[in-house]
Structures are given as structure tokens and as C-alpha cells.
Amino acid sequence: MDKVKWNYIVDVLILVAFVIVAVTGLLKWPGLGLYNVLPGLQLSILHDWSGLIAVILAFVHVALNWKFMTSMTKKYFSRV
Asked: How far apart are CA 38 and CA 50, in angstroms?
């Protein structure tokens, strides 16, 4: 599989993980009163694991784009 496909897959998975983190975070927030939708332990486990997966995928995303990021940083700072 080429790099473009890997980037796409990782980006979609980051998006899915982030949406899960956001939704479960809102459901856990006592101010909204929605925390009884799922049992608290299951909601916390889903929230924590999807957050961990999002962070790991973010590191994978940076690793996949490292060469691009370093070349753009060098290019940007050479103008300044």
C-alpha cells in the first residue's frame, strides 16, 4: 500500500477516534445531564481508549508526514 493510502486511512481513523472522544466526553459531562445514556464505567472505558488510540494515530500521522514537515519548516525559516 502506498503512502497516500496510509495517510488517508490514518486520517480517517483519527477523525473517528476524535468523534468518539468528543461524544463520550459530552455524555460524561455532568452539566449536560446525559451521563446516564451508557453505564458510567463503559462510557469512561470507551472515552479513555478512543483518546489513547487518537494520540497514537496522531504520532503515526506525524511520522508519516515527517519528511514533508521538516522540509516545509526549513523552507519557511529560510525566508524569515
From this structure: 16
